[in-house]
Every structure is written in C-alpha cells, then in structure tokens.
Specification:
Mean pLDDT: 81
Strand content: 25-35%
Largest sheet: 6 strands, mixed
Distance between the termini: 23 Å
Helix content: 25-40%
Shape: globular
Low-confidence stretches: 1-38
Number of helices: 6
Order of helices and strands: HHHHEEHEEEEH
Length: 192
C-alpha cells in the first residue's frame, strides 16, 4: 500500500479499532494538533473544481496522445488497473503501457468525461470518480472499432492547488449501465 494512503487511512483504522475494542483504563494521549491550513479540506465547490481540473488534464493529455503529460499526472509510486485487469505499478510503467497503445489502437482516440464526482476522504486525499466515453478506437489492423464507455476511479493526493494520481481503477461499462450512470444526478458532499 502506498505510504500516503496508509498514512491517511491510519487514523480511520485506529478509530475503528478503538470503537471495537474494550475501553482501556488509561486515557489515550491527545494527538498533536495539525496546522489549520493543512487540516482544512476544500469546500464542496473547491473539491469538485479540483476533481474536474484533474479529469480535464487527463483528457487533454490522452487526446493529444502525450504520454509524458499523462504520466506527469501520476505520483512516482502510482498504480493503475486498466479495463482488462492489467495492474501497472509506478509512473514509468503506467507511461510505457499507455504509450504503446497510443501508437496503435488508441492513436486516433478521443476521451471525453460526461460526469465527474469528487469527494475528499481526508484533507489531502480525494476520490475522483468519472464516467468516460472513448471514440476513434481502431482494431490492431487499423479498422474502426466500436466506441467504449466506462468509469474511472482515482485516489488522488492534493499537492497545493492540484491533485496527483496515486491509484486508478478503470472499469468498462455496458451501454445499459452507462446510460443509468450518465442520467443519475451527481452527489454533492460537504467537505470533511
């Protein structure tokens, strides 16, 4: 597990264990106070804007077939699971595998987001989930292939005014499932 995610998940794990275990006789030591600026998650609109900014950069790099820019969106130790279940570890490997398919079957592809939802689960950790449509796909012999649609889920770390991808799960959706996702109202969640 990535150190960042482990660090973000540790307080939740400790809280879960504390509520499940019997009370101890000694009071727990108080946690050190975090600086106010670092502890504050952005408000709901700012959360959504950060997620949309990340998705726009992802789409832009994809549509320009610029896998250096695409890779730069990922943390050095990021991982990525594609729609076929291939699990790539590290920014360089993610770049290499996407560069290969952008020279062949995705060389004319266009990626579009149709719905983006962003939820901060900690002040500096967000889950960004978005529905996508991919057009312009080619078969290995260069013939047009059917369009695809699906949902990408990212765990991203806030770095200043941007999000950096830490882990990604991509799922291809059937046409019926995608219509339901596309038509659903986005969830607006308050800042944590």
């Amino acid at each position: 597990m990535h150190r960042t995610l482990a660090t973000a998940a540790l307080p939740l794990l400790l809280l879960a264990c504390a509520t499940a275990s019997p009370p101890s006789s000694a009071p727990a030591p108080a946690a050190p106070a975090a600086p106010a600026a670092a502890a504050a998650a952005p408000d709901a609109r700012a959360q959504q804007a950060l997620g949309e900014q990340l998705v726009a950069a992802f789409n832009d790099a994809w549509n320009r077939h610029d896998m250096d820019a695409f890779a730069a969106l990922h943390a050095e130790d990021a991982d990525f699971v594609n729609i076929f279940g291939m699990w790539w570890h590290g920014r360089a490997t993610i770049r290499e595998n996407h560069a290969g398919i952008h020279k062949t079957v995705f060389r004319q592809s266009r990626l579009e987001s149709v719905r983006v939802e962003t939820r901060f689960v900690a002040p500096d950790v967000a889950v960004v989930r978005w529905a996508w449509v991919l057009t312009g796909i080619l078969t290995p012999d260069g013939q047009p292939a059917p369009d695809m649609q699906g949902i990408l889920v990212h765990v991203a770390r806030r770095e200043g005014d941007r999000l950096k991808l830490v882990t990604t799960q991509n799922t291809q959706a059937t046409a019926d499932a995608f219509r339901a996702v596309r038509g659903a109202e986005p969830q607006v969640r308050p800042a944590q």
